[in-house]
Q: What sequence folds into this?
């Protein structure tokens, strides 16, 4: 297993949806509203703050159960469940039609997102067994901030992990085994990099991709 912590989604009901692979990439967006009156004779108006907008987070997750042959849906169904109205939520009353899905919080090391609703979920099943059992899936989630919680300062997702990480930008002609030889002094440790970045096919990593390089114990390569 690679050094570091596994990402997961915490649900409002206290359940936990573990990420089999840490996301290779996630994006966070926060928008503020500013408006100004017409400014005749001036280059620009004086803006006034009109309030913040809900933050958003987008992430891609990979679920793979080829190792044990079980259906990957045992994981993806948990994501589908948080899109549905949940009658366990306090205050739920079907007679008042006030039902809603749960909010979630994304955790990865020292990064903890705002409470967010899953605004959209796209699932792609990309690999099946000979018996048509789905074994691999990609999930694209769009999260939208549920409420104002005051200050929210996302931190580096690799800070606070048991061993520090580095980030490497993939260059033309580089391969994961060459990166493993460079950073660990052992080309056979390329799987450490692959697992830390959710890479299924090591030949699919494109130049320019930012890769997390876990600080593996006993590494002798360049720091």
A:
């Amino acid at each position: 297993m690679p050094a570091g912590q596994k990402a997961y989604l915490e649900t409002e009901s206290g359940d936990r949806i573990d990420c089999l692979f840490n996301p290779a990439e996630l994006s966070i967006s926060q928008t503020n509203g500013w408006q100004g009156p017409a400014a005749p004779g001036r280059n620009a108006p004086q803006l006034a703050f009109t309030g913040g907008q809900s933050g958003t987070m987008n992430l891609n997750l990979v679920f793979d159960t080829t190792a044990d042959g079980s259906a990957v849906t045992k994981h993806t169904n948990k994501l589908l469940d948080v899109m549905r109205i949940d009658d366990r939520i306090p205050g739920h009353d079907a007679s008042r039609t006030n039902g809603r899905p749960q909010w979630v919080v994304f955790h990865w090391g020292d990064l903890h997102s705002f409470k967010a609703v899953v605004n959209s979920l796209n699932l792609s099943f990309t690999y099946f067994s000979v018996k048509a059992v789905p074994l691999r899936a990609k999930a694209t989630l769009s999260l939208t901030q549920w409420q104002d919680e005051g200050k929210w300062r996302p931190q580096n997702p690799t800070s606070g992990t048991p061993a520090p990480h580095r980030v490497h930008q993939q260059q033309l002609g580089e391969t994961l085994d060459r990166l493993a030889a460079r950073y660990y002094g052992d080309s056979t440790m390329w799987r450490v990099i692959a697992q830390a970045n959710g890479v299924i096919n090591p030949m699919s990593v494109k130049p320019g991709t930012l890769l997390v390089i876990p600080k593996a114990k006993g590494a002798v390569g360049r720091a």
